């Protein structure tokens, strides 16, 4: 797939992107900051990597969700950190 080749994504990176995309409070901007993929590219990657029924469920869940877009978030919603963030090895975001 072009996105995987373009960003030289390893299977661990793809798994993490999918996990972040499924998390309700992790915005697409966090995926962009960590991996460089735009929202459109994340959607394309999800469609390629997921079973069609699961992809439809994910798209229905994500569309219009304000927590997935920083610009649409309420002011009191701050940065979200997954409980698994500290145990993920090679996570570039946690090393800042």
What report would you give on this structure?
12% of the residues are buried. The chain has one domain. 50% of the residues lie in helices and 0% in strands. The model has no long low-confidence stretch (mean pLDDT 80). It has helices at 2-7, 11-22, 28-35, 39-49, 52-62. α2 packs antiparallel against α3 (28-35).
Give the rounded overall mean pLDDT: 80
Tally of separate domains: 1
Strand fraction: under 5%
Describe the main β-sheet briefly.
none
The count of β-strands is 0
Tell me the distance between the termini. 30 Å
Kindly state the percentage of residues in helix: 40-55%
Low-confidence stretches: none
Summarize the helices and strands and which ones pair or pack.
Blueprint: H1 2-7, H2 11-22, H3 28-35, H4 39-49, H5 52-62
Helix pairs in contact: 2-3
Summarize the structure.
The chain is an all-alpha fold. 50% of the residues lie in helices and 0% in strands.
